[in-house]
């Protein structure tokens, strides 16, 4: 039997780096929202123990996060089942929307269910952290305040909103940004409530707009509709709306500019988790 799941994307509503860790990674504080938009993934159980990713990404399949997530589950649990996976990819790579991380998290969640592994959320988050810092938020699948490298997640209440999300024609390499001496890496640690009361900021934005004029131009264009922000380390940017009609009106106008864009709503729980609860 084939199962289909929407592998969602995320936005960082604010993002601050608070320092460098002994392991070389950086601690951060960020507010994640998960959206009802993303790649469609298809899973079919097999009995031969093989992991097959039939979608061609243009590079070695064993380096793909989807394959690595499935193989990690097999290796950790000794599961003898296999799976055939394909994906209808629409989210951009290097866009700051967490598409690849979401694909990995969706794979962990779905195969945990389909292979009857019964691993806990905590165990899946620990496994996911080894695959990528954004994987845990998609395991959680809810609006969260995140600390550490993104693996320390606390569910928070934040109003559901509509977002116009736009991706310029450039990809921003995160590693390059972290090596920049212009990146602020010493923001003070503050509580979620303290950060909520301040104007939202993304510490990567000043560095990115200095290096990528396309992002600077996009943020200016989006500011016509409200306060515009960049998600993650870029390059995708967004504006928040209170209602769907206003967001879609802005989308209709923005599509004329030729940018890749969509409107999505933040969700209380990801569609992956909702669908998994329905599978007996």
From TrEMBL:
Signal peptide: none annotated. ATP binds at residues 92-102. The active site is at residues 10, 134. The keyword Transferase applies. InterPro entries: GHMP_kinase_C_dom, GHMP_kinase_C_sf, GHMP_kinase_N_dom, IspE, Ribosomal_Su5_D2-typ_SF, Ribsml_uS5_D2-typ_fold_subgr. Residues 64-141 form the GHMP kinase N-terminal domain. The keyword Transit peptide does not apply. It holds the Pfam family GHMP_kinases_N. Residues 200-258 form the GHMP kinase C-terminal domain. It catalyses: 4-CDP-2-C-methyl-D-erythritol + ATP = 4-CDP-2-C-methyl-D-erythritol 2-phosphate + ADP + H(+). It is an enzyme of class 2 (transferase). SUPFAM superfamilies: GHMP Kinase, C-terminal domain (SSF55060), Ribosomal protein S5 domain 2-like (SSF54211). GO terms for molecular function: 4-(cytidine 5'-diphospho)-2-C-methyl-D-erythritol kinase activity; ATP binding. One of its GO terms (biological process) is terpenoid biosynthetic process. Pathway: Isoprenoid biosynthesis; isopentenyl diphosphate biosynthesis via DXP pathway; isopentenyl diphosphate from 1-deoxy-D-xylulose 5-phosphate: step 3/6. Its EC number is 2.7.1.148. Keywords: ATP-binding, Isoprene biosynthesis, Kinase, Nucleotide-binding, Transferase. It comes from the Bacteria. Catalyzes the phosphorylation of the position 2 hydroxy group of 4-diphosphocytidyl-2C-methyl-D-erythritol. NCBIfam families: ispE. Belongs to the GHMP kinase family. IspE subfamily. This is 4-diphosphocytidyl-2-C-methyl-D-erythritol kinase. The gene is ispE.
């Amino acid at each position: 039997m084939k199962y289909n799941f929407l592998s969602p994307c995320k936005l960082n509503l604010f993002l601050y780096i608070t320092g460098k860790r002994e392991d070389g990674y950086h601690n951060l504080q960020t507010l994640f929202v998960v959206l009802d938009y993303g790649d469609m993934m298809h899973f079919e159980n097999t009995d031969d123990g093989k992991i097959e990713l039939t979608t061609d990404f243009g590079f070695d399949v064993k380096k793909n996060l989807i394959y690595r997530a499935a193989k990690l589950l097999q290796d950790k649990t000794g599961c003898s089942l296999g799976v055939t996976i394909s994906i209808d990819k629409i989210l951009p790579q290097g866009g700051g929307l967490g598409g690849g991380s979401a694909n990995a998290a969706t794979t962990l969640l779905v195969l945990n269910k389909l292979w009857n592994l019964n691993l806990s959320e905590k165990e899946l988050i620990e496994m996911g952290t080894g695959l990528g810092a954004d994987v845990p938020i998609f395991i959680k699948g809810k609006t969260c305040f995140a600390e550490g490298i993104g693996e320390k997640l606390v569910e928070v209440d934040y109003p559901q909103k509509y977002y116009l999300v736009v991706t310029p024609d450039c990809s921003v390499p995160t590693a390059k940004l972290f090596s920049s001496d212009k990146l602020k890496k010493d923001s003070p640690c503050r509580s979620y409530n303290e950060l909520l009361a301040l104007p939202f900021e993304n510490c990567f934005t000043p560095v990115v707009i200095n290096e990528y004029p396309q992002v600077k131009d996009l943020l200016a264009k989006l500011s016509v509709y409200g306060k515009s922000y960049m998600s993650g380390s870029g390059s995708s940017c967004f504006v928040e709306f209170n209602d769907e009609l206003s967001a879609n009106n802005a989308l209709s106008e923005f599509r004329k500019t030729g940018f890749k864009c969509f409107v999505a709503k933040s969700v209380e729980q990801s569609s992956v988790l909702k669908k998994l609860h329905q599978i007996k």
